[in-house]
Amino acid sequence: MIRALCSFRLPTSTRSRVQRTFFASNSLSPGFCNFPSQKYFPVVSNLFSGTSRSSHSLLTRTSPLLIRALSASFASTASLASFSSSALASNTMTTDTPPIEYFRADYAAPPYTVKSWFMDFNLDENDTIVTSTMQISSRVEACSDLVLDGEEVNLQKIFINGVELTSSQYEVKGEQLTISAQVIKEVTDNAHDSFELKTVVLIHPAKNLALSGLYKSGSSNLLSTQCEAMGFRRITYSLDRPDVLSVFKVRLEANKEKYPVLLSNGNHLEEGDIEGSDRHYAIWEDPFPKPSYLFAVVAGDLASIHGVYTTTSGRTVQLGIYSDKANVDKLDHAMYSLKQSMKWDEDTFGLECDLDIYNVVATNDFNMGAM
Questions:
Q1: pLDDT number for residue 49
Q2: How far apart are CA 298 and CA 278, in angstroms?
Q3: What is the tens place of the pLDDT at every residue in 250-260?
Q4: Which of 94, 150, 256, 288 has the fewest other C-beta atoms within 10 Å?
């Protein structure tokens, strides 16, 4: 699995101190931080598999040991700041649109949920094609309109149960894609309780100055994601809300020389070269349902070190820590810290890491202190 470095929900003074050291010291990017203890700091994590068996609360936790140790590991890097200065300097944006407020009193459960996703990324910094296949289930008896969120995504095609919809069968207005209940009933022959929705969208990572969703980081060729809190809708049309939990399978394809490392949530299933081209692919699958804000992708030219951790019960967990090549000599202490933190969870709470693979990514070019 790959997990995300996390945004700790700590008291303000503590949070700012941790962000200045641990998260921001290397502008830690898609990494991991899902210790399944559920016993220490509440954390909303955002990457690479995101959830463990006990994480339906949408919270994961980690130990104080990891905070101290990883902060020491990366504290000597030149980019010690709350945010990635290079990313922000090259991607400055202004907006006159006021933020939207969401109130608990207005909450209503969605009429649909997405049981599973298969996402196929044809990655490029300028033009990325995202083909998403969703298995959608109704939560209510009566057929309802399906309303999906999407920002700065260019819809190319849309299908229900393999049938391509015409432009008169759906509506794109503002930041929403709507398919009426009538169309859903017609296309599914009234089997609206469960159906397959497929969309093909075009996005532009290099032009994504919001630094939310999938974007090109700083001056490097790194492509990475920031989906918390509502960035997934900048990748594809979706039910982008935390009460919709789905299983994700992801295929990533990109130029092999430019993006030799392709990472996403979950278990690494397959990789290979695309015959007759300069491209390669990797397939990842996350077996644990998670909300879309925990989704993540990283593609770039990164260095790494690898290790093995044996749990108390004798399970073997493969460990990997990725970084910019200039920082690879700083990773040994991070690996030590990771192992010690996993042991701390076992000794303190009797809970083991439930992953087969556990990866961390730390990079200079990332827009958040952590995610």
A1: 38
A2: 19
A3: 999 999 999 99
A4: 94
Question: Taking the mean position of all CA atoms in its chain, how far away is CA 134?
Answer: 17
Tokens 């083909």 — which residue?
131
Strand order in 176-179's β-sheet? 146-149, 176-179, 171-173
Q: What is the DSSP letter of 175?
A: T
Mean pLDDT of 269-297: 96
Taking the C-alpha atoms of residue 311 and residue 117, their distance in angstroms, rounded to an integer, is 31
Indicate the Cα dihedral angle 184, 189, 190, 194, nearest 10°. Answer: -70
Single pTM value for the model: 0.76
Give the model's pLDDT for residue 144. 95
3-state SS class at 229: coil
**Amino acid letter, residue 132:** S
Task: Give kind and range of the element (H or E) at residue 196.
Answer: strand 194-203
Spatial CA neighbour of 7 closest among 35, 32, 43, 41: 43
Please give the domain boundaries of the chain with CATH numbers for all domains: 6-91+304-362 (3.30.2010.30), 110-300 (2.60.40.1730)
